[in-house]
Amino acid sequence: MKTIRADVAIVGTGAGGGTAAEILAQHGLRVVLVEEGPLRTAADFDMRESTAYPQLYQESAARKTLDKAITILQGRAVGGSTTVNWTSSFRTPPETLAYWSERLGVKACSAAEMAPWFELMERRLHIAPWNVPPNENNAVLAAGARQLGIETGVVPRNVNGCRNLGYCGMGCPVNAKQSMLVTTIPAAIKHGAILLHSTHAERFDHDGSSVTALVCRDASDAQITVKARHYILAAGAIGSPAVLLRSGVRDRGGHTGARTFLHPVVLSAAIMPQPVEGFAGAPQSVYSDHFLHLDRIDGPIGFKLEVPPIHPVLAASTLTGFGEQSASLMSQLPNVQVLIALLRDGFHDGSPGGTVRLQDDGTPVLDYPLTPYIWEGARRALMAMANIQFAAGASSVLPLHEDAQPYGSLAQAFSAIRGLRMEPLRTRIVSAHVMGGCAMSEDPSQSVVDSFGSHHELRNLSVFDGSIFPTSLGANPQLSIYGFTARNATRLARTLTGK
Question: Would the pTM count as exceeding 0.90?
């Protein structure tokens, strides 16, 4: 058994862990980072799905909810999901922050209070709108929305020297993506941080009031014990609750793992008369928030429209149909265009979210019931996307549903969508955004951590990742995690150093 001593032990190297490591190490604190995934670098990123998914993703990019109805894309490597995400970097929507403050007891989280921290991380990670013409896949969203009078925007991206290759989801082969892998983690190591990769954080030892050790297992199953003054969980909104559950950590209201939220995503595929080649060029560069703002935040579920890349394995495993239908669709892949709608969950009684549970072997699984409230929004989203695709000139549109087929007109598509049975495993649902499970609030009976990520029961434990968000966001979460972690880690550094 090996024992490592540090000032701060951090579980996870994604947006939360990587940001915290740099800030704490810069303050002169001895930091140990524990990452269950491998260390892979640009030399390993060959832009092949067959390489990337097994090496860089949880469960080889096939992680699913308990009922198998939702596929969840999450990173599992040094840098976490920041190594494999599509670079979209939005601030937390002001209406979301206001809801947390006014309804859920989160303090110091207004748009004005958070702005300096978002600005700090935008500068650090070169986040700015992508001022390059969109690829055709994204241009279809812009063109169709323009025909219908729907406003769109340019996606801010965390890139520096981007070559516009379009293979962000397989790791950036030119180190242009400003992930934690190439920014904060190397900076933390230069300040003395230690990185343990391919190392599984098994549990915390604790006495009910403080953590006494972090028990890990390396790739050879040898035990490594990390003893620190302070411990940070940044293993993601499935991983962080799982560590607490395996450790037997209690919270006053029993909320660990509860109210875990996704942006459930529904998809619409179109065949365009012109080549789209959605496998090339920046994967996400155009978006629309039009349907987020039609109703109050706690009214009918709103959704954000974006565009995913269309790589062969991702397409074949996501598009619906079997046999001849599937082969026909895949044979037209260069002309396939796809829109996605990210449903903003967690602001209504009909959207209570899911629960992270432990399986018999101690690994986590997310139970995520899909309610009538969500299904109603999914139907509206499929209709909105079909409308935009036909407005952009689509030859046919296929809502991704097992009972759907390509439709040659908007009237046919609308009629079919109205009649689709919106059920798990019939409607294709995916997500890459997991939030909640360790919700923050000043009310310990309703949350796991306070507004700055400090655990309510264990005085030397903090949670710095998307699991602290008490709802989903309505925007891609990486910049929100960066901003909140920068604020919370800076506060923690001052406490630990007295400076």
Answer: yes
pLDDT tens readout for residues 453-480: 999 999 999 999 999 999 999 999 999 9
Give the residue from 368, 328, 329 showing the smallest Cα distance to 351: 368
Q: What percent of the chain clears pLDDT 90, i.e. is strictly above it? A: 98
Q: Are 75 and 81 in contact (CB under 8 A)?
A: yes
Distance of alpha carbon 259 from alpha carbon 234, whole angstroms: 17
Q: What is the DSSP letter of 94?
A: H
8 Å CB contact between 21 and 14: no
Identify the DSSP state of 78.
Answer: T
The rounded distance, in Å, linking the Cα atoms of 130 and 286 is: 9
Specify burial of residue 359 (Cβ count, 10 A radius: 0-12, 13-18, 19+). exposed
Rounded to 5 degrees, what angle do the CA atoms 480, 226, 18 make?
Answer: 20
Q: Tokens at residue 311, please?
A: 């790589």
Task: Please classify residue 432 by burial: count the beta carbons closer than 10 Å to its beta carbon, then call 0-12 exposed, 13-18 middle and 19+ buried.
Answer: buried
